Each structure stands twice: as structure tokens, then as C-alpha cells.
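Protein in question quoted in full.
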Amino acid sequence: MALRIILLLTSLVAGVTCQFAPGCSFVGDQCMYHVELGHQGQCDKRAVSSGDGQCCADLEAKMSSLTGDVDELKSQVSTLMTDLLSSKSNLSATQDNLSEAERRTQQLLETLAQREAELNQTQHELARVLNNAGGEIRSLRSKVGQLTSDLNTCKGTLGLATNTTVLPVSGILGSDVKMDLCTFESRADTNDTMCGYTRGSSSIGWTRGHGKISSSTGPQEDHTFGAPAGHYMYLDARQIAPLHTSSSHSYTISMTSPEYPAAMGGYCIRFWYNMYGSDIRSFNVYAKIASAGSGYPIFSMTGAQNQMWHMAEVDLDSEYTSKPFQLRFDATSDAYRSSYSSTSLLHTSGDIAFDDVYVYNTSCKNIPLCPPNGITRDVNGHTTCYTFHVQPATWYEAADACRHEGATTALVAVTSQDEQDFLVNTIKADQALTTAGQYGFYTAGADQRSEKTFDWTDTGTPYTSTYSNWKTGQPNDVGSDQDCLLLEYPDLDFQWGDVDCDSRHPFICETSYPTPKASAATASPMVGK
């Protein structure tokens, strides 16, 4: 607006100050004005105006317009000042609101700090209460578990279906029945790998081995885990061969168990053995009673078998168990070398192994077919039962826990869609299992032997199946240490994933009953020395 006024004034001044020779004179009672308007060359005409005062009308009009513009400018300036004052007032109000917001924020922060302190105090008190209550809870759980165990022992003996368990393995047998299991693995309480077993006095005896010793003889893996980390006892024919040069000479090694107390109700003995190899000779087990020499033969097997682990079952009646006794395991080899000066070893494919020795102070018929709290499933006349465990464990702890349920119990091997569906439906039907399932369930699947080649390990002899249910992108072996198969994804009906075997998860055990004849040999006491 100011620019507009300046231009207008400049225009007026320019109009007035154009080159001219001002002057006036009276002629015939008239005032003569001599005015030149415009630019050079345009002010050379004279104009005569009357003296009635209208000669400056144009100038007055422009001045009037200028006055109007000035008034308009004043009005706009006034409006601007009003707006400025209003903005200043609004800014002041905003600053007040901001100050109030900052004050309230500070109050909230102080309140939050106070609540956090109260929460921490509450957590400490809760931890103390839970710690104090833990002993009572464990005591009550033990009592309930014992009562449930006694009931389910009866059910299992009769072959009746029992209920799902959501508790750790405990009380599988009645309170008066004891089970001793030796897996030849390290025990957490004593770090004893031999379970009190002693080798014979000879320089060469039973050897604690693991994994596949030879492609021509012996087991592929141990029976407990079915994995390279597991152990078993075996006769090593390659150690015996250098001792002599005669093919007609045999060599026997011995191992003796701890002493078991007398039991008038008899004993049930179950163990797993492997006799794979073209040079296999004999494997014998004796019940050694007091000073009865080498003992009474209760089991004998001669000659080669396939590479599977086989189960032996022996019922000892009171004739053998009325006094304390021991078990003695003997294996024989006729391996030799061609001559004392030769390094050529012969008949060395004769390794004999045994593992997972179960000793019950009751007869075999009193041991439940299905572990307590198991869920049974029958397919084409073949019955299996499953126990679900929500207490997290490593894969090795879970495998060991399943072996402690019974001689034919192992981590579950899911070999069909029907079995997968059965497990999923069982989990979904139980709230406790559904909750535990958020962490997945361990199975017998593992690839410790060959990365991304997952085997089922439940038999102790790893095998594969055509069925699989991996989630897309699995197995992926993140961190290069994921070797165990988990029913991992509950939102996808527990599709499979691979995890670190040392991570802790719930697990499922599977028991086959009656004992599969294809993988078991039953022996009765034999007349002996």
C-alpha cells in the first residue's frame, strides 16, 4: 500500500512539474493561466480556463483518491494490529496450556515411579510367598501323585485306559514296587556311568561305547537315546583277537550287577541287547545267588541277528529271589589273529552289546501295560499309549524320563497324519496341555547323525519315515545347533520345527503294548548249575 501511495504522489508531481513556463495575466477581465502539462513536446499548447475554480479538478480528484487510499491503509494497519494483539493473546494462552501440560506430565511421571516401586515390592513379596508355598505344593503333589499312581497301577495292569497326565513322571509303579534302571549314562546325583556294575578280573572286558563302532558288527547307536551322545556296554572282538591264534579257542568276558534284595514276589528282568555281525557267538545272563558259583542261567542267545536292538524279558520266581542276588552278563568271542607275528585279525565281526537294564521287584505281569495317566490309541489291533508331560526338559532329559516309564517307552515318533491328528486333538481337548503347547512338545526326531536328515530314535536304531509335517522354511538349523524335532507351531496344528536339543520344552512319551514280538525275546529261567 505504501508503494502505491508513493507511485501516486510521484505521478502527481510528475504531472505538475513537467516542463512549462508558469504565468498569468488579465485579459478582458479574465485571468489567463499559462500551463504546460505532460512530457517534453506535449506542453506546447495553451489552454484557457475560466476562473470558476474548476481548473484543478483533476488534481483534487487524485488527492481525494490518495486520501481514500491512505484511509484504507490506516484501516488495514488497524486490522493488522488487532490481529496481532489477538495472536499475542492466543500465544499467551497456549503457553499457559503448555505449562499446565508439563506440570501434569511431571505429576504422571512421579506417579509412575511410585507405582513401579510398589510393583517391585509386590513382586518381592509374591516371590517370597511362592517360595514358602513351594514346599507345601510339592508335598501335596507328591501325595496326589502317589494316590493316582496306585489307582492307575491297577488300571494299567488290567489294560484299562487312564487319563491324561499333566504332571512330571512319578509313581509309575505302586509304592511297594521298586524299579532299578541302568542306562550306562551319567547320573546327575553321582556322575556314575556304571550303575554299580563291575567288570570281570580279566584284562579285557566289557567296554562302554557310543555310536557306530563298525559297519559290519554292533549297534548303530545306543538304545537309550538312539543318538551319538548315548552309551552302551559291548564286547569288542578287535580287542580279543590279538590274544591268541586259534580259531577253536573262545574268550568270555563278564560283568556283574549290584546286589538286589530278596523279594518273595519274584523279580522281572528286562534288558535290550544287540547281536549283529557274521562272527557272533553267544550271550548269556545268570542269576548269581550268594555262593552259587557263576550263577544260574536265566537267558541265552547264540548266533547273529539283525542290527536292531532286541528286548529280553525274564521272570524270576521266589526260588531265585528269596535271597539277595546279582545279575551276571557274559559274552563270548572266538576272534583271533592268524599268527603271533601277524597283524591280520580274524572273526572280528562279533561285537555283542546290551543296554537299558530294568530290574523290578515284582513279576512282569504286575507291571502296567500302559504307564499311568496314559491315553490309549488302537490302530488295526496294535495298541499304543501316550503320556503328555508339561514340565519342560531338555531333549536328553525327556528321552531319559520316557525310558524310566517302561522298557518299551520312548519319546513319541510321529509316523503318520493319523497319529499327528490324534496328538493334536488330545492336546486341544485339555486346557493344561493347550497352555503347555505354546512352548511345543519334544518328539523322538533328531538329526545329530547327519544334518537335516532327521531320524526317529525311539527304537535305538535310527530310521526314517515317509511322513513329515514341517512348517514352511523348516528345518532351518538356526545357529547350527538345532538338531531336535519339536511339535512347535500350535496355531498350525503343531507343524514341526527344529530346535536346540538343550532348550527346555514339554514332551510326549509313547509306549507300545503288548511288547512287539518283532523286537523282543522272552526267556524263562533255565536249569543250570
User: Anything to note?
Assistant: The longest strand covers residues 382-393. The radius of gyration is 50 Å. The longest helix spans residues 57-158.
